[in-house]
Write a structure and sequence with these properties.
Length: about 290
């Protein structure tokens, strides 16, 4: 089945920008042209590709086709790069999965080193970001550990160091005599979301398994820091994000010298590896500047 580039570009633009009007503006055509291209593509495929709401979203088939269009654009960029040809059309878009703490601490400089790529980031816990690769929903991901996803190339990045931190006022209230099993069971902690296992992992190593303290759920890296400073609870914060607060005393480690290092890897779909080589090079180089190496 032959799919025309204009139709695929229209689909990608609608799903990226959330409306036919915004897609038309991005592609410098009329909303009517976008509508006609989407309708023709849906007729060709035989199924609805766009849920026409506010914003517009892709059906499963629509998301799959849009991902295909993004991959084609990345591959075309690779060919242009290898043949020293000028880039054709708008910058190619890369959809990848990454954990929020990596985005908040070290990943932005890697993005900045890839000016010819538009990033579409999916935020998920590092223990689960590989699932996006397995489903074919992304072309690359920052993942936990050293186990490659089938069909992907894995590049070791080093480890993101976490420290269990709280405010001095919180320490005085809950851990006046130091943290122990009883106080750690009762003292509120901070949890990113239901997938976040860092606090539990730290407790298993430094206290005992199966502790389940009360928790605030805060799905934001910066909110984690702010909540710890405000005395709401203790939490595992990336050292890169709280170095200043530890230095000026706004935060302290609840148990000194008990960091938790989380190994990270960059995984790229093998089919797209050559096209994404500049991104991989930037990610690996940036990680080397920020992450912990044995």
């Amino acid at each position: 089945m032959q799919l025309t580039p204009n139709q695929l570009a229209a689909l990608s633009a609608v799903l990226s920008h959330g409306s036919f009007e915004a897609a038309a503006h991005a592609l410098n055509v009329t909303p009517s042209a976008i509508s006609q291209r989407i309708k023709a593509l849906e007729d060709r495929i035989g199924t609805v590709l766009v849920d026409r709401g506010q914003p517009c979203t892709g059906t499963a088939a629509g998301q799959r086709l849009a991902k295909h269009a993004e991959d084609v654009a990345l591959l075309e960029n690779q060919i242009a790069r290898e043949l020293s040809l000028p880039p054709k059309g708008p910058a190619a878009q890369l959809r990848c999965a990454i954990n929020a703490d990596s985005l908040a601490t070290w990943f932005i400089p890697a993005m900045a080193a890839c000016p010819d790529i538009l990033f579409d980031l999916v935020i998920d816990d590092q223990d689960h970001s590989a699932d996006w690769l397995r489903r074919g929903d992304v072309s690359a991901a920052v993942t936990h550990g050293s186990k490659p996803v089938t069909g992907c190339d894995l590049f070791d990045l080093g480890a993101l160091r976490y420290v269990a931190t709280a405010s001095p006022a919180y320490m005085s209230r809950w851990f006046a005599d130091g943290p122990n099993t009883a106080t750690l069971r009762a003292a509120p902690c901070l949890v990113f979301n239901a997938k976040d296992a860092l606090q539990r992992r730290w407790l298993e190593i430094n206290a005992e398994p199966a502790l389940s303290p009360p928790a605030h759920f805060l799905p934001s890296s910066q909110a984690f820091v702010d909540a710890a400073k405000a005395g709401l609870g203790w939490g595992m914060n990336p050292l890169l994000l709280v170095e200043q607060e530890l230095a000026n005393g706004e935060l302290v480690e609840i148990l000194p010298d008990t960091p938790l290092d989380v190994p990270l890897g960059w995984q790229v779909s093998r089919v797209m590896a050559a096209a994404l080589e500049p991104v991989t090079r930037a990610v690996v180089a940036t990680a080397a500047k920020y992450l912990i190496r044995d």
